[in-house]
Amino acid sequence: MKTFFVLLIRIYQFIRPGIDAMQKTIFGYVPQCKHSPTCSDYAISCIEKYGTMRGLFMGLRRILSCR
Question: From the CB of residue 11, how many other CB atoms can be counted at a distance below 10 Å?
Answer without folding.
Answer: 10
